[in-house]
Amino acid sequence: MARPAIVWFRQDLRLTDNPALHAAVARGATVVPLFIWAPDEEGRWAPGAAARWWLHQSLSALDSDLRALGSRLLLLRGPSLAALRAVLRQTGATAVFWNRRYEPAVVARDAEIERALRADGVEVESANAALLVEPWQVATKTGGPYQVFTPFWRACRAQLAPSRPLPRPQRLDAPTVWPPGLDLADLRLVRRELTRFADDRRWRDVLLQVLATQYSFVGRHQQALESFDKVLGRSARILRPDMLAGLEPCDAVQTILELADQRQVIMVNEAHHVPMHRAFTTQLLEALYRKASATLRSRR
Question: Quick one: 90 and 146 in the same domain?
Fold first, then answer.
């Protein structure tokens, strides 16, 4: 059996469609889920108060999800390299997996950590968990970055080949003995003054909607429904397990295209100011246009 492996969680605080976690589980060995709090290593991109509040909630949710699989989240403070070496030594792990980040300070930090761990004889594997195309995959003929959006977008589209989302692990083999770690409260991510939001209906509703969106994104459908119900002021509804049976992430564009064979498509885009929503809407409209053109040609 393979030796234990560490999965270093960073901004990818989810179990579904997590390439680093998927690769570690595929080794068939014990997995040590680890989060390291080291904001001083992120340069100008260190998280602010709102981001820390979100991080606190997300770490709590991730730990709950891991416990449901028989594991838990180990929390440590940086420096990251020292923390990783300590967990490697304490668990006997021989591999570290993480998903890539792209902020300049973090890229430099991760490169130094990878060099140091490989020099220690540790297997290191990183993965893309956030982008359709990596930055270095889209370049001009001279190898430099694009300066104009249209040719950049054309080059991106030529390389787009998104795969289906990776499944959530069914179980995790946890360490027999856990290294010492911190409680979430020890990280002091939530500033005391943010608690006043609980007494302000407007802020409470905003935060509940943000939480609902995050819950739905990671598949926590019951919590998403409860959050929306609180905003609407109605009693919480219960999602029975049988109502969620068989639900899996799917390709939204492809699913809508299949439904469009028998249904009329009406789009109501209330978040057109969000780049992610604009990109999805553009992709969907282009796919629908191609489908309609093909249908018209076949009927001539």
Answer: yes
Evaluate whether 105 touches 45 at the Cβ level (below 8 Å). Answer: yes
Q: Which domain covers residue 287, as residue numbers?
A: 252-299
> Other C-beta atoms within 10 Å of 58: how many?
19
Beta strands in 122-170 (DSSP E): 123-127
Distance of CA 96 to the CA centre of its chain: 18
Q: Lay out the sheet containing 123-127: strands in order across.
A: 74-77, 31-37, 5-9, 95-99, 123-127
Q: Which residues of 172-203 are buried (b: 16+ CB within 10 A; e: fewer)?
A: bbbbeeebebeebeebebbeeebeeeeeeeee
Per-residue pLDDT tens over the stretch 97-150: 999 999 999 999 999 999 999 999 999 999 998 888 888 888 888 888 888 888
* CATH number of the domain where residue 177 is located: 3.40.50.620
